Amino acid sequence: MSIVSKFAYTNNTPSTFEVAPVSIDLAGDYSNKTLEKNKKVQETWFNNLSTPNSQMETIIIHCNKIDTVDTDLTVFNPSKYKGGIQFRVTAEEILRTTNTEDLNWAVDDPIVASIQVRCPYSDYVTDEHIAEAILRALGALRDPVTGEWQILKIMKGDTNPTN
User: Fold this and answer.
1) C-beta separation of 15 from 139 below 8 A
2) Which residues contact 57 (CB under 8 A, 6 or more apart)?
């Protein structure tokens, strides 16, 4: 018997508009502190050693065990695995805007971006499946024709940026 795990969608043409992640060396460029909140929740905070204290960058990796994988979808063939994992990777950044003509003028804007995943403890769920789901979520933020980000539309409350 051969077992194959795959998603059901057919709109899976790879985008020609690539997203290139920044190479982040958590072990070399960041100090870290792991917090175990309880037996089900663990979190590690990584503070960027190259940023000034007034403009910190923090990466947070949060992981917790969950009893069920909540979804709004109807699952017709549920897994025998009931418990699961939920993890989140968050980048907290400070965007500093300055004026080259007025050195006393500056504005700091915090930007917090997270990727969150929930999945069952299943032998069938692999790194590749999770990465594919994350890439699809990122793809929903891009115009499929121009490749332009649709983030500003969403920031203005447009949850249907296809308009």
Assistant:
1) yes
2) 47, 48, 51, 91, 92, 93, 94
Number of C-beta neighbours around residue 84 at 10 A: 20
Dist CA 17 CA 14 (whole Å): 9
pTM of the full predicted structure?
A: 0.82
Angle at 14 between CA 10 and CA 16, to 5 degrees: 145
Interatomic CA distance for residues 60 and 97, integer angstroms: 24
Distance CA 109, CA 18 (A): 27
**What 3-state DSSP class applies to 77?**
coil
The Cα angle at residue 31 between residues 25 and 37, in degrees rounded to 5:
110
Residue-wise pLDDT tens digits, 22-44: 888 998 899 988 877 777 888 99
55 by DSSP, 3-state: which?
helix
Task: With CA atoms as reference, report the closest residue to 68 among 57, 82, 79, 54.
Answer: 82
